[in-house]
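user: can you give me the structure for this one chain? tokens are fine.
assistant: on it. calling the predictor now.
[tool input]
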Amino acid sequence: MLKKEEFSELQTDMVQNILILGANGYIGGTVCRRFAETKDFNVLALIRPGSQAKEIEPFCKKIICSEKSQFSSEEIQKIIRQQNIKTIINLAWDLPAASTVEAQFAKDRLALEAALTAASISSDIHVITTSGNFSLMTTSGGRITETPPPCGFVLPSYLSWVELLVKVNLLKDGLTEKYISKGGNASIIYPGSVYGASPTRKGFWDFAIQQFIIGQAYLGFKPFPQDFMTGWIHLEDLAECYIAATRRHQKGSHYLATGENLSISQMANLFAETAGVKFDVPLFSNTDRVFFDDSHTRKLLQLEWKHQAVKQIKTWIDRIKDLGNYFLD
């Protein structure tokens, strides 16, 4: 029979150590908290010099500040060996955004390549990388699943306004796919348009909603197409996807997390009705018949999404009023 101290050591060994890059970001903070709350994982966060880590500190076994402005494979390998890391989750995005795809990719590829190179020391180390649901869309539209688009595909014209984000993600996906093809243990998660309990001040989707309510694009941003369809996922549900993918630990997997299909104009209309703002609803016909279907991912990971955007809107409106945001003045 195991002694009490031996049983305690066995329990500790059963807790998996994971390393998160980009842990103090919008998505990363929630992912850290949810992993910690499972009690099955110890979270280690690698952050850049000068990054704020106070909010994630309660959820991390250890916060490691990189010695350089960019993560290196050498320092990640050191962490892997010293902390017995089994999973690396890359949520790092280099901001502020550059003006060209090439410049942004040159920055964003560094964290990803560092993680993949470091993990190559053992086939047991699983790297989970992050892309986006737009990266799965082609000119043919239709039902979008977690299947990566074919080589040589063409993006739909209405994604031109977000070309930088999509193309950088596609280039990063290419690095991950190449790593997998050579026997590397990695997976890709494609989140939809991510939302939380309250909107961020002047956040990405605020721009879209404002455009449809006041009829103007925000500060020179390209207008969102009226027929723009996207899928939506709550931060808490997305965190569950990362946890389930970590537990599954399956090399070469692709996961789509985008449970609700709502166009930007449909979301804007919901916002306007809730806020009591009157405006002409733009015509929406979904001419490309885009529909995001993540049923296969949910089946694989045994997940059901718990949140709906429509149930969050009243809270968002109250929060926007508190913040004094633009379109509800």
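assistant: here you go. The first strand starts at residue 16 and ends at 21. The CA atoms of residues 139 and 212 lie 24 Å apart.
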